[in-house]
Structures are given as C-alpha cells and as structure tokens.
Fold Zinc-binding dehydrogenase.
Amino acid sequence: MRAALKTEDGRFRVEEIDPPELPARDWVRARVRVAGICGTDLRHWKKPDAHLACHVVGHELAGEVVETGPDVTRVAVGDRVVIETVLGCGHCEWCHARQYNRCPQLYPTRTQSVSRAYAEYVVGPQHKFYRLPDHVGFDDAALIDTYSVCLHAQHLSKLSIGDHVAIIGAGPIGLGQAMLAKASGARVIVADTVDHSLEVARAVGADAVVNAARDDPIAAVTAFTGGRGADVAFECAGGDAMPTTLPQATRMARRGGAVVIVGGFDAGETAIPLEWQRIQMSEIRILPSASFALHDIYPEQGQVLSLIADGTLQTQPLITHRFPLERINEAFDVAQDKERTGAIFVALEI
C-alpha cells in the first residue's frame, strides 16, 4: 500500500509498504479515503524526532471497510465508516473503567494500528468503527475526531445554558468548541490572530470575535461579559502559543469560573508563570482535557457523529484545502502557514 512515512528531519516520504493484517478475529481493515492534519501533527512538522522516523502517523480519518474478521458483527465489507483512534491497552484500571483516554499505554497502543491515517489501509477492533449515514461524507467524518475532543472538553467544563464562553484559538478545535457551546445555549466570543479564521468563527455562530494581534483579548472578553469575565474559558491554541494563551485564559475567567486546557503541550516540562494568588483567591478551576472517551454510557465520538448528521455541527466551512497523499509535504506547509494561506482544516484524499 502507499503510505507517508516520517523522515529523520520531520517531513514525509511516500513509499510502498506492506498493508496491515488483521491481528484478531474481531478486527476490521478499512481503506482510508480522507485524513486530516491535526495540530498535534503540526507540532512535529519539520522537527527531527527519532522515535517517529519511518512510522506512519495521523489520527483523523474516514474510509470504507474492505475486510472483517470472522467475529465482526458491527460493520460489514463496503460500509462507509469513521474510525476512532483513541485506543487504550484494554487491560489497565482506566481501560476497565472505560476511561481509556487516560490509559498509560494509550500512545504506544494506538500508534500500532488505528493511529496510522496517512496510508491506504488501517486496522482496528470493531468497536472503534462507526457507520456513516449516506449524507455524511468522508471529509465531514474526518472532523469527527476533532469535534470529539471538543465535546469531551465541554463535558468536563460543566458549561450550562446562558453561560458566557471565551475561546482562544479559531482552528478546528476552537471552532468546534464554539459550535458546541452555541448549541448548548451559551454566548461565545472567540479570539485568534488570523482574520479569515475569525470570519469563519462568525459564520458558524460566534457572537463576537477579537483579533488578539490588534486588540486586547482580555479587555474584549471583559466587555463582552459586562465586566464579570467568562464563566468558562477554553484554551484551544496550544503548542508554542501556550505561554501566552494560558495566562490569557486565566485572566478571561470570572471569579468562580473555569479554564479548560484543550490545546496540547509538547513532551517534557513546560514552565508558564500564572497569577496563582488571583487564581486561588478567585477559586478559578483549571481543568486539563485529554482526547475523549465516554460520557456516562455514551461514546463521545458516536455523539459527535449524530451532531454532524443532524446539522448541529458544521464541517464544510472549516475544510479549506484538499491534497492527494503524494503532496502531503505541501499540505503540511499550507496547514502550518495559516496566516498566509487561510488554512483551517486541511484534508488529505488518499
């Protein structure tokens, strides 16, 4: 099969490699049709990372079933599917409690099978495959992973109808967060530094936007909330922006409010000074959010699929670029240089 392998310098080369085999009777093989470029992938772009060299990566994908093990009953050959890539070891206490997003072996486990989107074929256990309604395209479904991250963060936040919500970052995560907050009856302000992304935020329902490169985002949130501050502030930028955006989020939150950290950190220690006395005296909750799993008895990815299917969550306004797998390096350059290209969600058609 064709696959994009990570190189020593952090780019990709497209090669022919052996396709994955089914390792168990209840596993499924799918032909990948669309894969997305996530902010997590971009944090490794053009950065030497020895443990990723010669590996297939990518974790936002949809495709069609081409092979099933003899014990598979959930899907059948020919089904159009989205594949959940949050796969734990299945044996630890967290997996037993269905909190598999907290599994200590999450990344070693998922990267051996389902988190290999930049290739023609992928395999996984049948419970990670969800059938797509006919009107939900492969490109729509490739955003389900992103929106599931947002839904998990909203569940942690305890956001309620009538709340004032501040969102930092108008990438796919921030825009998904905005749509979910609006669907829950909140009033939403979104901050970013890219005008095109803020225009899309408006288009998908944000009540107000602020360009943080030109205006003070904290002052804008204060004015938006009548001087009180946000009930919930979502940090959705992550990465290199975090030393700026996380302190901003804590300043945006009202006394007794919450800050939800949705954007990702790089590995290792990260030192970010915060006004800890103010946070403590104001009893501001800081809530880290990681991937997604179940909310009560409901798989969050399944919930998001339903929200896309019924039109609650929009997808097409976010899909700004499409590239074939052979142009994956160009696609990553476009996704990274969003201020010039206007990129939000970049889709790879495989």
About this structure: The chain has two domains: 2-143+315-349, 147-288.
